[in-house]
Amino acid sequence: MLKSKFVLFDVKPKSNQYPNTFCVLFIFGIHAKFEKSNFMKVLMIIAMLVFIEKQVSAQTPTINNNVRSANLLNQLGSYRVTPGDIFFPISSNEKSQTIGDVYLDAHWSQSSLLLFDNERLINDYLTRYDIQNNEFEFRLKGGVKVLAGEKVKNIVWIDSLTKQTRIMNNAREYIASVTPIDGFFEVLQEGDVQLLKKVYLEILRPNFSPALNVGSKDTKIIKKSEYFYSINNKLNQIKKKASLDAIQKYDSSIELESLIKKEKINLNKESDLRKLFLILNSKK
Questions:
Q1: Which burial class, exposed, middle or buried, applies to 220 when counting CB atoms under 10 A from its CB (0-12, 13-18, 19+)?
Q2: Which domain holds residue 28?
Q3: 209 with 215: CB under 8 angstroms?
């Protein structure tokens, strides 16, 4: 008969590799002889217990990690992420500025101004014309002074850069076909059929988008021109050939269409318009 004494120990692992307590069946002593086969059976039972404990210990961290991953995915799924949540504006140190100016010519020029009031003459001052505010600036020793454009009938000045004499007439001196025009016309060609130029401003406001960091922070001032001609102070804007009909009616002896073809006149070019009206006025 097999007589043996067994002791059951709870052994704690030295590391976290196997976090659960496992059982080891330890033979404390054997008081009798027993068959070899019985001894082998006991060893097999011990081996199986150890193997099962290792499998359980190995699977536990994986299960815990899978559970945590699943919980994280569920939390992310319940929150919608938009580009505004993950993209931030790129800060820029660039300051906004104004590109361009509001003057017919930014430089100062010697000029003479004829006023509507008793046709008084203001002579020999350095001036420049502010298109946006329709006023003339005077550079004086005490600083810059301004004069409202509505008080000025015409102005003659010598361009400080080109040294050419230039003339501007108040728009009130002309009869507009549709609506009254404010400001001044520069006279490009004198004569019975005057060629006139009206300069106006196109202001492009900043369109910068901080969210996308695109666009311009600057205000851009662009000068554009429209061309007119005047017969007996009546204005006609030059757009197409048909807009020149008033010239043909004014002087039927002028073969205007053939003249334009012969001289290869482009009505959109200032130099060509100057050439055309020089020819027209030289025929008088």
A1: middle
A2: 4-67
A3: yes
Query: Is 25 contained in some domain?
Result: yes
CA 114 → CA 130, 149, 150, 201, distances in Å? 17, 11, 11, 25
Distance (Å, whole) CA 103 – CA 151: 18
Q: What is the mean pLDDT of residues 97-102?
A: 94
Cα–Cα nearest to 195, from 252, 264, 275, 121: 275
What separation in angstroms does the CA of 263 have from each of 108, 196, 210, 257, 269?
36, 20, 53, 10, 13
CA angle (248 as vertex; 243, 251 as ends), nearest 5 = 145
Q: Are 18 and 125 within one domain?
A: no
Same-domain status, 45 and 132 = no
Q: 154 with 169: CB under 8 angstroms?
A: yes
pLDDT digits (tens, 9 = 90+) for 225-247: 999 999 999 999 999 889 999 99
Q: Which residue has the higher pLDDT, 27 or 230?
A: 230
pTM: 0.65
Chain-centroid distance of CA 88 in Å reads 18
Distance between alpha carbon 94 and the CA centroid of its chain, in Å?
13
pLDDT in tens, 119-175: 999 999 999 999 999 999 999 999 999 999 999 999 999 988 888 999 999 999 999
107 and 155 in a single domain? The answer is: yes
User: Please, are residues 112 and 122 in contact by the beta-carbon 8 Å criterion?
Assistant: yes
Q: Can you tell me the distance from the alpha carbon of 267 to that of 260, in angstroms, rounded to the nearest whole number? A: 9
